[in-house]
Structure formats: structure tokens, C-alpha cells
Automatic annotation (TrEMBL), chains A, B:
The keyword Magnesium applies. It is a multi-pass membrane protein. The gene is mgtE. It holds the Pfam family CBS. The lineage of its organism: Bacteria, Bacillati, Actinomycetota, Actinomycetes, Kitasatosporales. This is Magnesium transporter MgtE.
Length: 441, 441
């Protein structure tokens, strides 16, 4: 029976897992009680959620306390970081709601983020941002009694304005607002004031989605539950705002072909600033060699009408601008939920017509500019190219973010510079081909 | 005495103003009492704030009601819209807090926005977004009494979680959170729980600044006061969030050289989509004719080494990307308050070095690409140009938003396309000059 500590010593997590699966909860609790803090925590985290709760309940309060403290501990954190990713993933399954809540309570926002990782909440998930300190109510209380509960336990909670209502098994059944309690008669029943089936988020789901849901449903705080709908915490509007602000900052940076800075702009070093921008610049530079190839392919066209070169920056610049506008509009519309990936065909059709309309208007000016600098022939080439390029750029720019999202890539990665670079190369092909056809070269 | 109605009939606002200045409040109240709704409202809105309050207090309740209703009225709204801008500005000075609060109460968010304009709150100001329905407390209450006030008047208020504390003259002296009241003994005094000198916003100041202040100070709701610090309402976190989201959407659109859509992306017509993008595209196209001139100026250089043309899209593209990254980073840093206009010199220096570092790294790749397509000579020109263009683009891109803000222009107007277009033209000059020097043309 005592070979579990040995398996752990040898870091044989698979063996330990096998052993744990065959033992009854009380036997596991017994083993845990004899272990040192780190070993007991590892053993505990290897259990799946239901078993973990059973074992936890079997433990003496002093051993329970050891596990809770161990889960917050730097030693455990270091150990998890040194595991190989497979073992780490196996270990960090979602912890039981009851344990998670107690581990996270009393930590600062920063410590909470660090510790939430050890409880199995992935990076950027709701579990990393929620507060576990809530005042949960039972449905069968009178308003006066409920206010008593709030008074007794509210000082420790981060917010008491949203009060989750749970059943005996900590399953979320509704929420009630403090406002309703305060404005009602003390003899009224909480059950009359409860909003049932409230919007909620799972602790493991992306925080941004939860924050946007809060905005749409206009709730002050969003209850957070585990995969069995047991209450683990609340996402406050404060936290939600921070999540959305960070997501927006990331989108904005990505739209310009950069990664978001992890720190304050003025305190970041020049090297850190460069690093956020370098990768995309390099990729785009490599992609831009395509334009060199296109130019080379049409070298004879360029040589026979050297004046064609005059308009290259103007044409690809305009194409890039049109594409960037469409891409940015699509990324934002996706972010705030105005467009879904299922709208793809409709977006293509909208952007195609928008680009055509823009191209037609710009062609008038383009023709005038061309006529001033060169002749009407070349001006016609410029005008026609503008129409085709704008239609193409707008369609590509508007479509690519949706395609990215379909492929589960962050749509904001389809940056304005990326669209611009793509439109540069294809724009040149459009330009030279138009020139060949119109001028009969 | 009765020539006021005549002056109004003739739309002689200047004359009416002069008359009003010479009369005592009771006489004006007397005149107002005889007028029809529209005339009485106009007269009332012509008074400056202090006089307006004095006159208002002199009026019978029924006449007060007439003014309040008139201020919400469509007829008055139409009339104001048809005034010429000078008269309109003269008329729509800030209304007294007491009157403003009563006019706005009970209106929907949309009606409130429309009506707030008639009370003298400029577009985009806090007054257009705030809720006037608050529960204000007096400092000398006990907690139990204060909760009684909240119970009695809370149902009508939009929020009761933040309770502004005012003195006898409705001047804001602090706030107290409902949380504090609920968790304290009923016999404690409100004065012990009050947060004095709370952050606040003036109704006439920009809503975005107020919303960002809320985020920084982490308050749930922000008290809104008039120019004499009298309470007029609360900006709730909900409203603040909406303000910031709209501002971000605007920034994002402007960054791509477009105006924000006023409606849902999918419901906007192709014509509306085009309109948001057209103006900038046209301006940028006109600006891009500069690149045609530059190309023309260097035509002899281009003709003597025709291969120079191969790299034009790649070079100006990379310059544009670098500039766009820097501009976007600067605009966002300004928006979230990480950078101030006083940081101008430091930002120039940072972006200059960042651009240089990026340019040096890109030059290595650029040289390799050049060497593959053409010879080492031309590759050297490409590499040197990349270094100079990146340094220049990064500096210009990072600096222009700050300069725009200094000139009180929205920094986001310094869009990526604008920087790109500017860098296109100057980049060509850098490229051809470098070629002339290095190749000795």
C-alpha cells in the first residue's frame, strides 16, 4: 500500500495515477495524511474532480488545510513548471469548485492569477480573473434573513451587489441583486426576487467571451461555475472591463502587425518595443519579395513604357488603404459581435460592391491625375486599375478576418499590413495586365 | 413691460436678452407665467444659470411644470434646431442642476440624450450619458435613517449602489457606497462612512475623459456635477463602458483611415460603408500624387538603373508597415493614458532608436533578397535604404499622433494609411538618393 510515495519520488505520474484509480477515497485520504505538503498536493491534483472532492471530504481539517495551503505554494508552483507538458496537462485538470474557492480566497489579484493556473484554469480563462469571494444565498430564505447573511459574510466578499443563489449541492440556480433585497419587505421571500437561469460563464472558458456576454446582458457581475454548474466565483464588471481593454489593446496592436506590449509604453525598453514589431515586419518583408518577382516578370512591360513606374506607389498605396479599411472594419465587427463567421458570403458581397463603388469614385480623380502627368492613354490604365484594385482589396480585406476566425486564428492577426502586402503583389499584376491589354503592349 | 413676447415673436434674441437682464426675477417669472409653453421655455433658457434658478423658484408649481415639460418637448427641439448657430450657442448655456435633473428624470436613454442637448450639454459630454435618477443623502443621517431614505426613494433611481452625499445647497461633499451602509450598524453615522473629495466629472466635460477617470479610480459610478459643484447625476459603469467602447471603435476605424459606422456593420448599406471610407481614400489619393512627382523627379535615375524599380513596392511597403506600427502604438498609448503630449521628446527618441534597430535587422534580410535578385551593389542600396526608411518611418509614425493631440486634433486621425502615404513619398526620395550616392549615378 505504501508504494505511492515511492512512485511520486520517481516522478512516475502514470504509475501513481493507476494506483489512485484502484483505491477507495478513504485509503487515498489516509495516504495523503502521512505525506509532506508537496507530495500531498501532487497526489490530490492527480485525482479527477469527483474523486478529489470525495477524498477532500474524508480528510481531517488539518490535512485539508495543508492541501489548500500547498495549492497556493511556491514550491508546488515550481514543481508544476518543471513537469513536462504532458504530465502537467494530466495533472492540471479542473479542481473541485469547493476547493478552488477556498484556495483562491484571500489572495491578491496577482497571486490569484498565478494560483488559478495550478487549479487547472487555462491562461486567459475566466478562472484566472474571477473573484472567489462571494456571498451565496439559499433560495428558501426570507429577505431579512438573507440580509443577515450578507451582513455576516459580506465584509470578506469582493462584491455583495450580486448574490448568487445556489442549491444544497452548490449548483447555481439564480442570482439576486442586493438592490432588490434592500428595496423589499424583510418578510418577502428571496425566491420571489431571484432571477433564474442567469447568464453564467464556465471557469475554463475564455475570459473575453464571458466579458462580452456581460456587456450584452448588462449584468453587473457574472456568476462563474465549474463544468458541473457549481458556483466557483463571480466575474465583476471591473475585471470584465480589464479583460476587454486588454483584448482591445491586443487587437489594435495586431491590426498594425505588432504584438501588444506586455508593459507600459514608456517603461518598455527599445529592445522590447522592437521585439513586438519585428516578427511581423520580417514576415511581411519576406512576403514582399513577391512584389520583386512580379516586377521582374513584367520587366519587359515596364521597359517598353517606363512611365508605368510613376504610378506604382500611388496604385498599390490606394489598394493597401482600401484593404486595410475593410480588414479593420471586419475585425472590429467580429470583436464586438456584429458579424459572425456564418456571414462570410454576405460580407464578401457587401465588400465587393463597396470596393467597386469606392474604385469608381477614385478612378475619376485617378484619371485626372494621370492626365496631368502623362497622357490620356496611361491615365485610362490608372483609372481602370483603381477600379479593379479597390474592388479586389476591399473584398480580400473584409473576407480574410472571417476566414481566419473560421480557422480558429485570431482575426486581428489579419492585420492591415498583411492585407496591404498581399494587395501590393496582386495589385501589381492587375496594373501591368491592365496596361498590356489597354496599351496593347 | 409686455414687449418681451413681441421681441420673441420677431426672433430678436439679443433684444430679449437685454430686456431680461434689466428685470428682477419676480417680474420675469410674471412674464413667463402668461406665455405659452414654447415662449416660456425660450425665455427661461435665455437666462443665465443663477438667474434661471431664481426665476424658477419664483414660479408657481404649475408654471414650473410647464417649463420642465417644455424643455423635453419636440416643438422646442425643432425650434432650437432652426436657430442660427450663434443664437443657439447663446441660448444653450448650462441649465441649473436642479432643473436639469428634473427634466431628464424618467426619460429613456435615447430621449435623455436628445433632451440633454437642450440643457446645454455639448455632444459627447458627460451630461448626455449620465443618469439624473440618484439617491442623494445628507451627511448628518444615521445609517439606519439613510437606509430608510434609500428604501423610500431607491425604486426610481437607476442605481443605489453609489449614494452621493450633498450639503444643503446640493453641493457634492462625498459619496457613500450602499455596501458600507448594509454592512454597518444602523446606529453608526453616515459621516463616518463617507468618502470625501470623491472623483467627479462636470456635466459639460467630454464623456470619454470621465469614463477613463472611472477606470483609473476604480469607482462603480462617478458623480456628475455642474460648474458650481452641484450634483446633477451619476455616470454608471455601464454607461462608462459604452462610452469607452464607442471611443475605441472610433479610434480603430480612424486608425485605418475611415470614420466609424453609425450603425451595425451588417445593417449599413453599401453606400453608407463607402461614405465612411471615401473621404480619407480621396485625400490619400491626392496626397499620393506626391509619389508620382517624386518618381518623375528621379526619372533619369530610374532610367539609368531600371532594376531600381523592382524594389520600390518592397521598400515603401516596409516603411509603411513600420510607420503604421509606431502610429498605432502611440495612438493606443495616448488613448489609455500611458503617454502624454509632454512626452513628445522622449517618444521621438524611443521610436528613432526602435526604428534604427528594426531597420538594421531588416537590412540583413533585405540584402539577402537583393543579392538573389540583382547584384551586391543594388542589394547594398536596398539594405541602407531599409535602415534609413525604418528609422524615419518609426519616428514619424510615433510622433505624429502626439503632435496631433497638441494641436487638439484627435490623434487617431493620424491613421496608419496617412503615415503610410507620407512615408511612401519620403521613402522614394530616400531610396533614389541612396542609389545615386552608392551607385555613383
Amino acid at each position: 500500500m505504501t508504494h505511492l510515495p515511492m512512485l511520486l519520488e520517481e516522478q512516475d505520474l502514470a504509475g501513481a495515477l493507476e494506483w489512485l484509480e484502484t483505491q477507495p477515497p478513504y485509503a487515498i485520504a489516509d495516504e495523503i495524511a502521512r505525506m509532506d505538503e508537496v507530495q500531498s498536493v501532487i497526489t490530490f491534483r492527480l485525482l479527477d474532480k469527483d474523486r478529489a472532492l470525495e477524498v477532500f471530504e474524508e480528510l481531517d481539517p488539518v490535512d485539508q488545510q495543508q492541501i489548500l495551503e500547498g495549492l497556493r505554494d511556491q514550491a508546488f508552483r515550481d514543481l508544476v513548471e518543471n513537469l513536462d507538458p504532458d504530465d502537467r496537462a494530466r495533472m492540471l485538470k479542473e479542481a473541485p469548485a469547493k476547493v478552488a474557492k477556498r484556495v483562491l480566497a484571500g489572495l491578491s489579484a496577482h497571486e490569484r492569477q498565478m494560483t488559478a493556473a495550478l487549479l487547472g484554469y487555462p491562461e486567459g480563462s475566466v478562472g484566472r480573473f474571477m473573484t472567489p469571494e462571494t456571498v451565496a444565498l439559499q433560495q428558501d430564505l426570507a429577505v431579512g434573513e438573507a440580509l443577515e447573511v450578507v451582513r455576516r459574510r459580506g465584509a470578506r466578499a469582493e462584491t455583495i451587489y450580486t448574490l448568487p443563489v445556489v442549491d444544497r449541492g452548490r449548483r447555481l440556480t439564480g442570482i439576486v441583486e442586493l438592490r432588490e433585497l434592500v428595496l423589499s419587505e424583510p418578510t418577502a421571500m428571496v425566491s420571489e426576487l431571484v432571477v433564474t437561469e442567469p447568464p453564467r460563464a464556465q471557469a475554463t472558458e475564455p475570459a473575453e467571451a464571458a466579458a462580452r456576454l456581460m456587456r450584452e446582458t448588462n449584468v453587473l457581475d457574472l456568476p462563474v461555475v465549474d463544468s458541473e454548474d457549481r458556483l466557483v466565483g463571480l466575474l465583476t464588471s471591473d475585471d470584465a472591463f480589464e479583460v476587454i481593454e486588454a483584448a482591445d489593446t491586443e487587437d489594435v496592436a495586431r491590426q498594425a502587425g505588432a504584438e501588444p506590449l506586455e508593459r507600459h509604453y514608456m517603461s518598455a525598453s527599445v529592445f522590447q518595443l522592437s521585439r513586438t514589431r519585428m516578427v511581423w515586419l520580417l514576415l511581411l518583408l519576406v512576403a514582399a519579395t513577391l512584389t520583386v518577382s512580379v516586377n521582374q516578370a513584367f520587366e519587359s512591360t515596364l521597359e517598353s513604357v517606363t512611365q508605368l513606374a510613376l504610378f506604382v506607389p500611388l496604385l498599390i498605396g490606394t489598394g493597401g488603404n482600401t484593404g486595410a479599411q475593410a480588414a479593420t472594419a471586419a475585425v472590429r465587427a467580429l470583436a464586438v459581435g456584429e458579424v459572425r463567421t456564418s456571414d462570410l458570403i454576405r460580407v464578401i458581397w457587401r465588400e465587393c460592391r463597396t470596393g467597386l463603388l469606392l474604385g469608381l469614385m477614385l478612378a475619376v480623380v485617378g484619371f485626372a491625375v494621370g492626365a496631368v502627368f502623362v497622357g490620356a492613354d496611361l491615365a485610362a490604365v490608372v483609372a481602370i486599375t483603381l477600379i479593379v484594385i479597390c474592388t479586389w482589396a476591399s473584398t480580400v480585406g473584409g473576407t480574410m478576418p472571417l476566414l481566419a476566425k473560421k480557422l480558429r486564428i485570431d482575426p486581428a492577426v489579419v492585420s492591415a499590413p498583411m492585407v496591404t502586402t498581399l494587395v501590393d503583389a496582386t495589385g501589381l499584376v492587375i496594373y501591368f495586365t491592365t496596361a498590356k491589354v489597354v496599351l496593347g503592349i
